[in-house]
Amino acid sequence: MSQAMQTGTAPSPNRLRRWFAWLCLNWRLAAIALGGAVVGWGVFATWVTAIEYTNHTEFCITCHVMKDTVYQEYTKSSHFTNQFGVHAGCPDCHVPQYSWISEAEAKVGTIGELYAFFFLGRSNDANFEKERPRMAKEVWAKFEATNARECRHCHDYGNMIPEQQKPSARIKHADAATKNENCVDCHKGITHKSYEEKVNAPAPTDFDVN
Amino acid sequence: MSIRFRDIAAAVGIAGLLACPAANAAGINWASVPGKDVVLFYPGQSSWEWALTPTDMSGADDFRKGKDCAACHIGEEKDMGPQIVTGQPRTFKTGVKPSIEPTPIPGKPGVIAAVVKVANDGTNLYVHLDFNEGAQPNSNQDPANATKVTVMFNDGKVPEANRGGCFAACHDDLTAMPSAGGATRTMYLPKTHAKLTRQGAGDVLVAPDQLAALKASGYQLEYWQAMLNPGQPPRATAEMVFDKREVVNSAVVAAEATGSGGAWSVTIHRPLNAGAPFSAIVPGATYYLAFAIHSGHTARRFHYVSFERTMVLNSGAADLVAVKQ
Q1: In CATH, what number does B3-324 get?
Q2: Is the pTM of this model over 0.90?
Q3: Which A residues, 149 through 188, put their C-beta within 8 Å of a C-beta on chain B?
Q4: Does B190 touch chain A (CB under 8 A)?
Q5: What is the residue extent of each domain of chain B?
Q6: What's the first-to-final CA gap in chain B, in angstroms?
Q7: How deeply is B219 buried, as exposed, middle or buried, from its count of CB atoms within 10 A (0-12, 13-18, 19+)?
């Protein structure tokens, strides 16, 4: 390590001249490095901006299907308004919070929804309702796969005060905390309509359940 | 043929059991036994098959995946019972569900809150319930009995009852249930019948050798009942639910009760070792209980039921600990 760097002082004029000479001799490499940095910064900035722009409920309801269906249900739920004034928007529950890789996967995954909107006829509410059971199950499966990671961003068994919960909730949360159970095991259909309300699910044929 | 001492002793033992089934509960100091709040709710026509159909009961998929009734619904009885008993459509945050009581009894309360205590004296198990049934209209369905208190008990060998209490034995085609079609059917356990459908299993049983194997495996629910009338000593019966409900040996179970103005204090007891087909009740094993109360001279489904509770003898982890006295 040079003395200049060790002491924190500026490089000497001779050393600057040597760097400039090296750049003149290797200008293509320098151009590639500079260009890569600019392009990389541009991609990064675009990605961050896109994520930021799309991570708002207002963006989600620019799609009229969202606005006419699940958004209307959401505005009547305690995730929209409650006595505490705490508000959870669409991305709080539906965009992974802890991993940029998972976030990227979620964002890229929604491109499929755009395809379905434009090419599979899901651009009207009736078709949306037909697809609701499938989509609801997919969302529940995601919550189950991550043990309700997005719910736990705000809700944590360890932060609950059982004495302030209703007796029924107190009993269930105590049991669920012991087993580290998934929130959506019990809390389905609390923000959006439970799909059973909307479709006639095929009647089960097996009732011999242990 | 010679009669051996062992045979005589066995005969004397069995005769003694039949003639003198259980001790009096007077020896139990109930004040020293911890009580457990158990709320019994009016279930209407919520059969086993109803509970397993997602369009009827929104938790059906969760139950099928392994979540027990009690895990989600204990604590909700005081909401559910009053909603069902009126016979009106039931309103939830997620929407309105149809009524599951087509013939409501006007003025009938939706729940009965009981305090349950269990104890043993080394010879008998005692189950004690204190409750106030409230202002109960007389339905005249069972003129002989004003009130009936029932305990359904198994030693873990009826998995459906371990997870769903008496719902395991309540089917859509029992008398007064939606798919009965005028037939008279008592409670039965799912595996005793050839095919369960949304409408119940009808009258077709599994093959006799399968029935025998099920019974030999202990796949039966014990049904202990105290029949109460104000000012009269209670009567008791011990029955068994298998492919139907039938009296096995009513002398095995005894009851004591006091009550006035709808407030009852009832003790049901039976020997820890009552002999087959009754389960031996031993320390270290977990048992499963569910409770039912028929009030206002009701019969069949017009009752109050509890979700399942676990029980152990002497000590251990369970909802109810039958302490030694």
Answers
A1: 2.60.40.1190
A2: no
A3: 166-172, 175, 185-186, 188
A4: yes
A5: 3-324
A6: 45
A7: buried
